[in-house]
Amino acid sequence: MKKISALLLCAALLAGCSQKGPKDPVDYVNPYIGNISHLLVPTFPTVQLPNSMLRVYPERADYTSEYVNGLPVIVTNHRERSAFKLSVTTGETLRPVIPVTYDNEHLTPYGFGIDLEDGAIHADYAVSHQSAVYRIRFRDGHGTLLLTSGNGAVSLADGVFAGYQVVDGETKVYVYMEVQEKPVKEGYLSHGQLLDGKSDSGRNACVAMVFDTPEVHLRYGVSFISQEQAAANLHREIGTYDVEKVAAEGRKVWNETLGRLEIRGGNETEKTVFYTSYYRTFERPVCLSEDGRYWSAFDNQVHEDGGTPFYTDDWIWDTYRAAHPLRVVMDPSLEEDILASFVRMAEQTGNDWAPTFPEVTGDSRRMNSNHTVATFADAIVKGLDVDRQRAFEICRKALLEKTLAPWCGNPAGWIDRFFWHNGYIPALRPGEPETDPNVHSFEKRQPVAVTLGTAYDSWCMSVIADAVKQYPEGIAFRNASQFYRNLYNGTTGFFHPKDKDGNFIEPLDYSFSGGMGAREYYGENNAWVYRWDVQQDIPGLITLMGGPDAFIKKLDETFSTPLGRSKYEFYAMLPDHTGNVGQFSMANEPSLHIPYLYDYAGAPWKTQKRIRQLLRTWFRDDLMGVPGDEDGGGMTSFVVWSSLGLYPVTPGSAEYAIGSPVFPEAVVHLPGGKTFEIVAKGASEDNKYIQSATLNGEPLTRPFLRHEQLVQGGKLVFVMGDQPNKNWGI
After folding, report:
1. Do 6-258 and 262-721 agree at the fold level?
2. Tens digit of each residue's pLDDT (9 = 90 or more) over 277-328
3. What span, in angstroms and rounded, lies between the C-alpha atoms of 463 and 650?
4. Which residues, at least 6 apart from 21, have a Cβ–Cβ distance to it below 8 Å?
5. What is the Cα 696 distance to its own chain's centre?
């Protein structure tokens, strides 16, 4: 029978396996939810303190993998890239990376325990912000540790592993790792042989230490600045090899963070899904400031941060919708620091363009549109301390000077000039060759998605322009926000691609046309999803579609229309478009606001029904409990908001749509000691319909809440029932 360490036993208890007392918020976090994907990328069981630079997860493809590639050191690009490999083995065969079997893995947000080599090795781990500690036990009293850099250099001296790895371009990550026990042999690895020597460099550079002791303790720091800074980070944060002590500190941090949202009532599954979703929203962005300095890949320089931490790794196309607005409420000072980081990025690139997909290695310019504009507009309209003038300048330049072509960071080209002159991105006819070199060969033009997304960005830009009293610019951008109308097909009621001559592309299958991911016309999702991509002018969209009744009917059709193909055919063409209810896709971020649109057309009870259906169907406490790519809080923030009964349909507007609160009681602990309490009397799986509502004792008759009503604190009370009240909120 395999040994289970004290930390493992503690983790099992904390996870509720045999716990009798009340759980803390972190005890409800199940990092394994979604670790098997429906089609594309799974979630990963990330061990990390909130928004901290050091993140790890098991080195494997997904939960079903038979092997792990040793022990993790640092994830440098969440979902995609890890630096260094720390291999452990009791065998004689040595390689830079040694895949090993694993078992009895127990993981929390702040640490983990794992058996390796069929129980021959056991490792415990606990994480801090920029440092961590391992305890490794060898069942037979001996074993080998190997530190490998995939592309860089490693060294050893006086019980210290150290080195760097080139992550991308000029970005390097450094490690400084102290080992408490003295090895009996050490050296560098060459062709499977351990040779005398203190260092190695190049591809898969590897150094190793051999031990004749049953237990090895090591602690390490990481840095993007230097090896010396990695050592300083370690010594500043961790002065012990005690895994339990570091884990206890991490547990405390997570409980304080997650406890800002306090829920009462509900069942164990609902609580687990809620707190796990909230935990996911802290995976990105990460703080790169180290003792007041930070490395920036935007100019390949080390900078003083001046007391304002620098954050990066934020996939804004995904996170602007719900994750950024959630942070605006829960931690506005953090959101201010993140937006200040965006300004720095723009300045450091030399072109003064707001970033779109900032990562540790720079701005990858992925996806479409420039939704950083939305994050600034949302912060400004909700009263955050933002450099409004600089926000105006960098967002304006990003919209007008950078190409709108997806997945491209080049200056604007001819389709951009066409867009601003004609009010839409032109689509190519089948077989028509591409003429703009800025267009990505796989991602295509995505003309409808880019037109709609840029119309929304233009509206957000008008909000920023008005805030800095640039009223003519505000008017111009508000006019551009109406460009969505140029692609509306009044005959079919869909947004329909047009060629450069202004003619609709025909024939067109709204479910299936557009090639892989519908990118030739839309983007990852089909026309049924982009039919609703007008966050900035929902009343205008209702009018365009023929009024509230017609609008509601079209919403109903989205949720009721079959895929129209076999699943094999549909998902082979649209792999991002999973989590279906009819043609609606719960698995992709452009869909998140759609179920709330009934509120705007006088049928809020349909929003209430739909939200509960979506939460119950697609977000569950199991390995496939996330319907699509989670994208660092982009999707799980929807779960957090929706479980509370609210949602920010239009970032850049200070209003939240009301859905159906899951929990009988929820308390939002706001900055400054204020609280906002949400009471849903009688809430249950069946009692999902709002019968009546009061805000601070006064009747609430609209299915909306203003931001200032939320953040000033108060009490929102719903009376819930199992049948819709079709008169409330209309």
Report:
1. no
2. 999 999 999 999 999 999 999 999 999 999 999 999 999 999 999 999 999 9
3. 12
4. none
5. 34
Say which residue the tokens 């998140």 belong to: 592
CATH of domain 6-258: 2.70.98.10
> Rounded CA gap, 565 and 574, in Å?
11
Identify the bridge partners of residue 67 per DSSP, sorted by sequence position.
Answer: 101
Sole residue written with tokens 């601070």: 696
How far apart are the C-alpha atoms of 312 and 37, rounded to whole Å? Answer: 26
Beta bridge partners of 278: none
* Rounded distance between C-alpha atoms, residue 591 and residue 532, angstroms: 8
Give the C-alpha distances (Å, rounded to integers) separating 349 from 259, 299, 440, 561, 589.
38, 6, 22, 46, 28
**688-701 tens-digit pLDDT:** 999 999 999 999 99
Domains of the chain, by residue range, sit at 6-258, 262-721
Report the amino acid identity of residue 140.
D
Residue with tokens 């090896």: 227
Return the DSSP state at 309: -
CATH architecture of 262-721: Up-down Bundle (1.20)
pTM of the model: 0.96
Cβ(147)–Cβ(172) below 8 Å:
no
Element (DSSP H or E) covering residue 126: strand 121-127
* Sign of the C-alpha dihedral computed for residues 361, 363, 365 and 369 taken in this order: positive
CA proximity to 573, closest of 527, 507, 512: 512
